[in-house]
Amino acid sequence: MTSPSDTASLGSRAAVLPTYARADLTVVRGEGCRVWDDEGRAYLDFGAGIAVVGLGHRHPGVTEATHAQLDRLWHASNLYWTEPMLRLAGLLSDRVGGARAFFCNSGAEANEAALKVSRKVTGRSRIVALEGGFHGRTYGALSATGQPGKWEGFGPLVPGFSFARPNEVESLEAAVAPGGELAAILLEPVLGEGGVLPLEEGFVRAAAEIAREVGALLCVDEVQAGLGRTGTFFAYEQLGIEPDLVTLAKGLGNGLPIGALLVREGVADAIGPGDHGSTFGGNPVASAAACAVVEAIDDALLENVAARGAQLSSGLQKLSGVREVRGRGLLLAGLLDRDASPVVDECRARGLLVLTAGPDVLRLLPPLVVTEAEVDEALGVLQEVLA
Ligand SMILES: Cc1ncc(COP(=O)(O)O)c(C=O)c1O
Predict the structure, then answer these.
(1) 50 alpha carbon to ligand 1 midpoint, in Å?
(2) CB 66: neighbour CB atoms within 10 A?
(3) Is the pLDDT confidence value at 114 over 80?
(4) Taking burial as the number of CB atoms within 10 A of a residue's CB, which of 150, 318, 336, 364 is the most buried?
(5) Across 105-214, where does the E strand assignment appear?
(6) Pocket test for ligand 1, best of 134, 147, 197 (most atoms within 8 A of CB)
(7) Whose CA is nearest to atom 16 of ligand 1?
(8) Domains and CATH numbers, the chain
(9) Is 114 in the pocket of ligand 1 (CB under 6 A)?
């Protein structure tokens, strides 16, 4: 017999617009690298809420900072200043050499802001992004997303976008060429949703050079790859470039919704009051959490990302059914000799949460605080499932 609460939860599932293919799993609690379902079953979370809980679920420092802010001020509007937002802007500005921040609530919004700033600052409209890239689901971000399947049924998109093949400089030159008028080149240092494909340093340097030559801005989407996930605070630090615009979200609030656009010093001069906005952007509670996150990304954490990334990558390489391992730090994927979705389902049945990034791509994004023993545990489950 179903209890009243079962009936309520089954009934309310039908009340949710089915934009996600959700697993039959209701998550009720999280701590560190684990979550628990409504029947008390534990899962090792190697998806980290899709690269969000970088510091692990309910990280003590972030939780404390958030509680303290909840007891002081929840919202003031962007007509005034708040202390957490100012502190966060300062912390992020220090990381990008004097950049100025615009705060919003998600990755798509951060990229929308980047697209608008690029057009306003340059007075031009064309944007070149990458085939297979992913920048979000709102109209500008979707128009910049190089995955035509995601456009179907939603046209017309925003005009002015064209696409180059990742890691192919000639393709980039060809996409930039027609008629100048380029506002920005937008790229992810590691294409996350597009299969966990790392961009090569030569390609990214060429993109920076081309942008400089034609007077366009270089915009790096660090929504998935940033905030320590690849072993440096920003993934672009490993690629020998200094972008004009950087977008962040996902891991910034460790689970609270916050996004940011960082605009390099000198680039933001054409932006003034009324050009852009967001009611909740820079919300004090989310900003307080984000300050604690940014402060927690220190050398010890980044060393853990490198060590655990190397451990996970070499363990994956040894598993039967894994054709290739790619990615950086703890943004990793195994290319399988079979469909990845059944593997994800079987892992979940055995208490391990993992993700896909394409039909045969198994994506692993554990919290950055993952331990050696937890990586071994995950590899053990994967070995059983892939055997
Ligand atoms: C690189 C990248 N940019 C942007 C987004 C969109 O972020 P959000 O879902 O917070 O809008 C994502 C989400 O997966 C992403 O991976």
Answers:
(1) 9
(2) 25
(3) yes
(4) 364
(5) 126-130, 161-164, 182-187, 190-191, 197-198
(6) 134
(7) 224
(8) 22-51+298-386 (3.90.1150.10), 60-296 (3.40.640.10)
(9) no
Query: What pTM does this model have?
Result: 0.97
With bands split at pLDDT 50, 70 and 90, how would you rate the model's confidence at 3? low
Q: Give which of 384, 96, 321, 320 is closest to 220, Cα–Cα.
A: 96
Give the residue among 28, 214, 15 at the shortest CA–CA distance from 126. 214
DSSP structure class, residue 235: G
Strand 34-37 relative to strand 27-31: parallel, antiparallel, unpaired? Answer: antiparallel
Q: What pLDDT, on a 0 to 100 scale, did the predictor assign at position 5?
A: 54
SS (H, E, C) 336-359: ECCCHHHHHHHHHHCCEECEECCC
Please state the φ and ψ torsions of residue 154, each to the nearest 5 degrees: -120, 5
Q: Under 8 Å CB-to-CB from 262, ≥6 apart: which residues?
A: 92, 93, 96, 99, 100, 101, 245, 246, 247, 248
Query: Residue 304 has which token pair?
Result: 């853990």
- Given a cut of 60, whether residue 1 has pLDDT beyond it is no
Ligand 1 centre distance from Cα of residue 219 (Å): 15
